[in-house]
Write a structure and sequence with these properties.
five-stranded parallel β-sheet, 8 strands, alpha/beta, three-stranded antiparallel β-sheet, about 290 residues, about 40% helix, 11 helices
Amino acid sequence: MLLFAFALALVSTFVGAAQDGEQCRSQHQSASLLGSRPQILLFGDSITEYSTGSFGWATELSQLFSRKADIIIRGYSGYNSAIAWSMLQQSTGIFPHGDGDRTLMLVFFGANDAAAPDYHMHVPVDEYGDNLRSIVRRSKETMPGITVVLVSPPPIDEEKLMQFDWYAGRSTELAGAYAEEAARAARDEGAIFLDIHTLMVNKPDWKPFLSDGLHLSPIGQAFVVEELLRVLLTHAPSWIPDRMPMHYPWHIDTFKTLDHEGQRDAKICPWPDADSKQYCFHRMAK
């Protein structure tokens, strides 16, 4: 299961060192690796908040996109889509503002919305869909060109979850209805849809994906990353890690050693200045 994700991370090719200033300029203009990095925004509930541990899906994304993109995590335990939409309406500082063309956003709500109707976290399924649509629209308005992925809530292992205070009447059947609504919202707003619910329940033995019946176990975390990469490969292949340029090249490619009267000429490929010109700096060292 992990092989797909790991293979994508490991199969990376990098451009060799430039031979002169013109080669250096063309290399970096085509790679777009200078200046600020692309950003990946993770916006969700406790499944997102708890994704930063040793085996968390956000942690694995940070490893996969190391020196490729910044992973920005906004996970809020107990929050539902109504609170999330209210946050976006009231504040512009939840996420740093970036270039939409270089921003990928994952919206991962629904596990709390799908609590039973008599629990405070519950949001009716049609309102949940409207909240997701509003979140996608607002994100596209504030960051034109952004790529948005809506992620469905996972299924529920009711027998295991009943042992905990946060059971809240959740069920796989209820979660499935919210997954279907998330799919409709994604279709309506032109977002990518990652149906973790269906992908899991179609597995012969999916319950080990969940640690407590609701939150993801280590193999469930890895499953989310694997399926995210699959859907990106199909719908947004430029966001596959091995297709993205590194933020500055490997040191072996950065320094080109030349023999100039016993001195070493190290060419460092730079960043654009205020006039968007490109340069190659030459550092002379004994």
